[in-house]
Amino acid sequence: MDNSGIYVGLDIGTTSIKVVIAEYIKNQMNIIGYGNTRSAGLNRGVIVDIDQVVLAIKNAVKQAEEKASRSITEVSVGVPANLLAIERCKGIIAVGNDDGSSREITDDDVRKVTEASLVHNLPPERAVIDIIPDEFIVDGFNGIKDPRGMVGVRMEMNGVKYTGPKTILHNIKKCVQKAGLRVRDLVVAPLALANIALSDGEQDFGAILVDLGGGQTTAAVIHDHKLKYTYVDQEGGNFVTRDISVVLNTSLENAELLKQNYGFADATMASDEERFPVKVVGKQEPMMITEKHLAEIIEARMRQIFEKLAADLNHIHALNLPGGVVITGGLASLPGVAELAAKILGVHVSIYTPQEMNLRIPAYSQVIGIVDYITRESEINQIVRHTVDGTYPTIAANKVETMTNEPQINTSTREDFAETEDDIELKSGWLAGLKKKLTDLFNGDDQ
Hints:
By secondary structure, the chain is an alpha+beta fold. It has 13 helices and 21 strands. Among the domains are: about 130 residues, Dna Ligase, domain 1; about 70 residues, Nucleotidyltransferase, domain 5, CATH 3.30.420.40.
């Protein structure tokens, strides 16, 4: 499939709004424009003032357009992990002719089976963001990734459904529309980020992706190339800045500069000899403090963030996954973050930094991930997603035979998928045992 073209990603974060314009040609993505403005109108990742967010989006878009020397009309927007729910879904339809004979499966059938998986009623306050198909089953033959062109009389689809609060989704779309743009896609942000920040092996055997943002800390547990669990902590880089401001009696602007220019997350890495001036409120002369003192202020908050994260992830045995922890986001640029996290979490920790020219900054990981996710999406996944978001005409699922849904997996309940037999069957030997062990990690609460 040729996905060549211009793609635009939009990341509406608590502390900043970022836009990236990318050109995708011959399976190569080149960023040709980007913008970044300070957020306004958001609280803990949730839009609370639409007009302020609209203005910030316009400013970021204008920056990106000027760098790219082109105007944009549509964007792919990341949906944050706040109140994200994950559940298994299944749809079954008849695809045969009226006389019972088989016929060739088309795009239309894929849309119908997707709609069959949506028959299950959601709570009125929630809406489906996306469905990722795991497999299609045609006349009992499973493991099919793309059934189009095959012949059959019955087709099933097993997949994963992501839902979010209607209020959050509506406000995101409203802000984009009021900014004069069209929402091309809604993308589950942790999924998009995992696709670029984790290797294929880490996504397969399991890893934890931690996004240290300014407004909050988000963790996503990835296993079998699926998003299994999300964790959100409302403490992020802003809390570190406020701690510096309060302890040193300096302005938030000065505190942010101190964090960026002299800060260490791990106090053992800072110097007792290195000193620098700090502007103190109410005093003419600056106060001299050591690098070590500033690092101790920062480490106190960072330690609290990682300790809460460790407690939550230990509850679902996620820290036993072989991929360890990968950290990205704005606060990942702080020296000593990986070292402090490794001490507290007790696993291997690495930092992910995008390798795009001029944007080798962890703070841009999420918005780059959104663009990359859309450019690499398969045609069958596009059909499914656009059926969910209503881009394609609604098709009455009048041939639905049965539809079942397994219990919802919510971040507050810490439940996990009931893996299918095909998920845990590997060819032989030690690999099968390892695969089974990893699957069982998420079922520890039930045993």
